[in-house]
Amino acid sequence: MTETPRNTFTDLPPLTLPDGSPIRALVVDDEASLTELISMGLRMTG
Fold first, then answer.
1. How much is the pTM?
2. Is residue 4's pLDDT more than 90?
């Protein structure tokens, strides 16, 4: 019996404020590679 691996990023519910509106974030950095890494992580988590 094999268990299907879970993707912990896509299995999470979307992040929202108590009133149900989506959380917004502004990330500012002058290092392009770090900015892209943070951006990718945020996109993966929705």
1. 0.47
2. no
